[in-house]
Amino acid sequence: MFRKQITHNGYRRKKKKNWTFEIIMLVVGILLVCCAYAGEIDPVKFFPAPFMTLAFMPMLLLVLALVVIALLFRRWMALPILGVALLASLPVIKVFSPMNTSENALPVPADPSLVFKVMTYNVLSFNYNEPDSAAKPSKTMRLILDANPDVVLMQEGSANVEDWSKIPSLAPFENEIKSRYPYRFYSIEGLNIMSKYPFTTQTIGEPQTNRTPLGYKRNETSYLARAYDLQLPNGKQLRLVDFRFQSYHLSFGKNMNVRLSPYSRPAPLERMRRSFALRSNDAAALRKALDDSPANLIVCGDMNDVPSSHVYRVLRGNDLNDAWADAGRGYAYTYNRFNLRFRIDHVFYRGDVRALHAERLVGGSSDHYPLVVSFDIDKTR
User: Fold this and answer.
1) What is the CATH number of the domain that holds 114?
2) Rg (CA), the chain
3) Contacts of 256 (CB under 8 A, 6+ apart)
4) How many whole angstroms separate alpha carbon 350 and alpha carbon 117?
5) Are residues 177 and 266 in the same domain?
6) Concatenated DSSP letters for 97-163?
7) Cα–Cα distance for residue pair 211/366, rounded to 1 Å
8) What is the pLDDT of residues 124-149, one digit of tens each?
9) Hey, which residues does 368 pair with through a beta bridge?
10) Do 213 and 234 fall within a single domain?
11) In which order are the strands placed within the sheet that holds 115-122?
12) Is pLDDT of 328 > 50?
């Protein structure tokens, strides 16, 4: 005989379902969507917003792991919650980690001269002041020359020395650089170019102040960005823009130049808050310059911020395409130090150019990896 558990009114008592897991899934799903679209908020107005954009990829990985757990433990009610969060975040996921394949790639022009290859690379001044590498042939320059792009746009490229022949690590490549890239320009702010094609250059924005609000000492003749108008074969014209935005200043160093005064320096969170604000202002200034630029445009640089961030959204606007989202594959980080795996270097474009292939190269001795994008310039005039 089995004993039946009877309530006072004669019905069997049902075990109450525990909804804790589903509630946690709902909270995590909401956080994922918030991280995906936190870049809509200006960091000047809401300080936590940029931290949320930085947390998007970890949150995405967490959600995907929870989907697997929900399947294993048959928590079916959690799946629609997580599915809605993933679907809402899908536009941002495609920018962070596109899954382009050879099947959906654009056809490559039969004429090789119509394929234009651009590299953007923060070269960390070719490590000119690091004892272990300063006197050795630069791995960074070797990576550039092996990739053989038509144009290399560099950030932190001058090493505060406009004459590269004075940098020991570059001396072994001097003849190769001059023969392959006859057109070059070195600037005090480190926005440098090596090109196979002739160009004219102009500054973008007003000269930077002598000392930023972070206390970082800068040359008063340096600029936020530089534009290069290239003369390509068959009369084709194209403008390239190279830029570098404010870093996070996670490592402030002992140099007195980076302090606000000899006796004080901002705390880490305060440094980051100011960096977010500076990048937001820089993005607005550069965006204004891009609005006044020719239609055929490629914009490359070290943004020091991730896709979906406020800076990314402002700079990209409604008219620029992200070359990695259009022609790259998977999640490719470009910063490689301190286990911070973020793509903070970007290539945008618009006009009569099309991104055919985007690649993140690994190597060199910089704290960044370069992006290399091949463009179809068939219709560029």
Assistant:
1) 3.60.10.10
2) 25
3) 262
4) 15
5) yes
6) S-B--GGGSPPPPSSGGGEEEEEEEE-GGGGTT-TTTTTSPPHHHHHHHHH--SEEEEES-STT-S-
7) 25
8) 988 877 767 667 899 999 999 999 99
9) 335
10) yes
11) 183-185, 192-195, 151-155, 115-122, 371-376, 354-360
12) yes
- pLDDT for 1 beyond 50: no
CA dist 110 → 26, 113, 178, 190 (Å): 52, 9, 29, 36
For residue 212, give the 3-state DSSP assignment: coil
pLDDT tens digits for range 156-171: 987 655 567 678 888 8
Q: Tell me which of 42-56, 112-126, 259-273 is least confident.
A: 259-273
Distance from C-alpha of 236 to C-alpha of 242, rounded to nearest angstrom? 20
Q: How many domains does the chain have?
A: 2
Specify the length of the chain in residues: 381
Report the C-alpha gap between 190 and 45 in whole angstroms. Answer: 31
Q: Which helix (H) or strand (E) holds 152?
A: strand 151-155
Round to whole Å and give the CA distance between 139 and 367.
12
Q: Write out the E strands in 183-261.
A: 183-185, 192-195, 199-204, 225-231, 237-244
Q: Which two tokens stand for residue 328?
A: 């790259």
> 227 is written with which tokens?
């534009």
- Burial class of residue 94, CB neighbours in 10 A (0-12, 13-18, 19+): middle
Q: Among 185, 182, 196, which Cα is nearest to 226's?
A: 185
Q: Which of 76, 96, 116 is the last residue of a domain?
A: 96
Residue that is written with structure tokens 């302090």 in the block:
259
* Tens digit of each residue's pLDDT (9 = 90 or more) over 18-60: 888 899 999 999 999 999 999 999 998 999 999 999 999 999 9
Q: Structure pTM? A: 0.89
Place of tokens 């945008």: 348
CA–CA separation, 95 and 307 (whole Å) = 7
Tokens at 114, concatenated: 């119509």
Give the structural domain span for 190. Answer: 102-376
